[in-house]
Description:
Blueprint: H1 2-49, H2 55-66, H3 71-88, H4 91-104, H5 109-123, H6 132-143
Amino acid sequence: MRDKDHTLEYLKRDFQQNCTDLRMLNVDNKMNAQAGETTANALASITSTHEKMYEAELLYRQGLALETSSPKGAKQLFRAGIRLARSQGAILFALRSSLALAKLLPEGESKDQAISELKEAHSSFKQGRSTADLRDVENFLEEA
């Protein structure tokens, strides 16, 4: 009888953990939807005001919001963010989008190209090697 009680207790805890995980996933999905809506509104504002200073960062943030629901759309946004950031000389924004794209792509030629571009973006930094963004890139490149 004791083993049965122990098993039931274990199953109960496992069920409770799964319920908690599902609630957290639901919260994450709602937050991603809100983040996507917020960045879409900000991008619309950029279009109307022609203030392009943070457009590449907003494309990156929009991509992050779409990673799970639309990986293809996220990739497109990351690539657009990279192009725009490079054209503006915004190397930090290019670095962030490059890292996100490299993480999202499956193994293969496209990923190799993304990693090469990430290395290029990383090498353009002469200072700030201890910042979180650069450490994230270095950790990713070590594992890749």
